[in-house]
Amino acid sequence: MPTLEYLMYGFRVVFIPSNFLWLTLGCFLGTVIGMLPGLGPATGIALLLPLTFVMKPETALITMCAIFYGAMFGGSRSSILLNIPGDGSAVASCFDGYPMTLKGEAEAALAISAIASFIGGLISSVAFVLLALPLAKVALMFGPPEYFALMVLALTATASMSEGKILKGLLSMVLGLMVAMVGLDPQSGVSRFTFGNLELQGGIDFFVVIIGVYGLGEVLKNLEKMGRKEVMQPIKKKFGRIWISKEQWRRSIVPILRATPVGFLIGILPGAGGTIAALMSYNIEKSLSKEPERFGKGAIEGLAAPEAANNACSIGAILPTFTLGIPGSGTAAIMLGALMIYGLQPGPLLFEFYPEIGWGVVASLFVGNVIAALMNLPLAGLLVRILAVPPKILYPLITALCFIGVYAINLSVVDFYLLIVFGLLGYAMRKFEIPTAPMILASVVGRKFEQSFRQSLMLSHGDFSIFFKSGISITLLILAALSLIYPIVSGALKKRRHAI
Amino acid sequence: MIFARGAFPAGFGGIFVEAKDRYLAIAVLAFGLVYTIAAWNLPRAPVGNPFGPVYFPLGLGLLVTIIGSLMLLQSSKSQVKEEKTIGKHGKYASRIIIVLLLCVGYALVFRVLGFLISTLAFLSAFLIILNGLKKWFLSVSIALLYTLGVWYLFEKVFLINLP
């Protein structure tokens, strides 16, 4: 079986000392970032981007993936111990994780979250291996019209699913596309929306957008929260053995196995991210449970399911990023951006011409999950102390890191002003409850999106019907339309049901 | 839908009232119109289809205009209720403005003063604003350590030159 041989090759790449070192470091940094409230994997990867510029591409991507699922491991720490989700996808872990802590079962909660994350991650990695090549082959059949349709689907799905606010999601998406419009048009040389500014002719680097929206915007939002007198519970620092009993294991294993495919599939779908995966699997477990009244009061299966789902989701999201060039989530969009910076084209050729990158990353998913689980089990007590770093010290340091990171990308101070503008925009979007993921996604794929649109029109000599000529593109466009209509219809139905 | 929309803990957002949404809708609508006009006035391509570079921005502008109108429609349907919570936020707004000014200042002096001095000053100021003047020594020492650490990492380890 050639896949297995490739995978073995991938493992050899992972165990090159420098790669292995960065993988471990990435898991650690990801765990820490995931743990800190308000900082999620997207922010983490954005902030640590400058680090990766000096690495080889495979090392950089392995590190980024490690940060991604490391954050999924870490995100639940503060949910369980403090009832503050480390990031969106750890929200569901609060529901039963914190009650477990209150009941004095913090050790079991920490253990099951690491174990569930590990199992979810491992099974998804296997699914990733099986699906990567077939999916990459599908991409070979895609011409510009199909790519255009696929990107329409990815963008509309992200906009409509992100937070249930479809208009705001669409607005966010269009803003991202508008950012991508700035600069010299590569096909005609016309300069667009540069306002005569030479520095803007090269376009706005989407990394500046990402660091601005996720980094600086997040800091500004948190500055506001800091003023409120928050009652900080003392963090539990002394732990017994972090492990679970047989009875707890028996209760959790089936929910974990159920939540994993749910999370993985949601991860592959563009748009729906870890938050939805975790909430959905939580609700599935609750509705299937024989004793749903235990949920919300410290039921271990209510913690295990979302934990498995969000890790499975993070790995699912990487799959279309590498094989199709369509990121499954905001965080995956940043990784796609990194691929593009290295001049790499995601898709079938990536696995063929750069096996060390494609398969190295795949193999790193397995190794990284083991490392992250090992790190999170015995060291949980130590890692949690990081939560004690006062935010009043942390956020200024993060702000400085945003600036330095942006400077490292282009060595240009003009980007500083763009950073501030996008930081402010990110803050405003949070205030107005406009989801940020569609904008990030759109700003990364925006240029390719427009190119595929215009290349299609060139192929057809300006005839718009080319988008409806192949079965693939029709299907994708219909799916895109459905993704927009479905939330409206289901919302209306819900209202009607409430009215009755 | 299987997952409950209301599954987020209360207070996850919700501070903002419909009145804000109406202002947002008007702003979005206005922006959409301005963008559409600007897109229409973009230079035509000298080669190939003259409208090539215009299609996309024009479509985006129209889309924003439509989104803005729909948002306006939506917000006028729901009753506007003013809440008193808005006033509370003024206090934090001033802090955010100060921090933003600090950022702009940092951008202005970065090249002139160089990385070390400007970052040290920026961080010290930021930390002192948040932690109070009493803890100035702690703030300055953290800023100094951090600045030197980052400088060392970039200059010596990553070989990225900072001014």
Backbone structural class of chain B:
mainly alpha
Which structural category do the helix and sheet elements of chain A fall into?
mainly alpha
Strands of the biggest beta sheet of chain A: in what spatial order?
1-2
Strand segment count of chain B = 0
Using only CA atoms, what is the Rg of chain B? 24 Å
Count the domains of chain B: 2
Order of helices and strands of chain B: HHHHH
What's the assembly state of these chains? Answer: heterodimer
Strand content of chain B: under 5%
- How many domain regions of chain A? 1
Number of helices of chain A: 20
Explain what the structure shows.
The complex is a heterodimer of chains A (500) and B (163). With 500 residues, chain A is mostly helical. Chain A has one domain (2-499). Chain A has helices at residues 2-14, 17-35, 41-52, 57-82, 91-102, 106-140, 144-161, 166-181, 206-227, 246-268, 274-288, 300-323, 330-341, 348-353, 355-376, 380-384, 391-410, 414-431, 437-459, 471-499, and strands spanning 183-184, 191-192. Chain A has a two-stranded antiparallel sheet. In chain A, a hairpin with a 6-residue loop joins strand 1 (183-184) and strand 2. In chain A, helix 7 (144-161) packs antiparallel against helix 19 and helix 10 (246-268) crosses helix 11 (274-288). The model of chain A has no long low-confidence stretch (mean pLDDT 84). Chain B has 163 residues and is mainly alpha-helical. Chain B has two domains: 13-85; 89-157, no CATH class. Helices cover 72% and strands 0% of the residues of chain B. In chain B, helix 1 runs antiparallel to helix 2 (52-77) and helix 4 (90-131) packs across helix 5 (136-157). Mean pLDDT of chain B is 78; it is low at 1-17 and 82-87. Classes of the chains: A mainly alpha (500), B mainly alpha (163). At the A-B interface, helix 5, helix 8, strand 2, helix 9 and helix 11 of A face helix 1, helix 2, helix 4 and helix 5 of B.
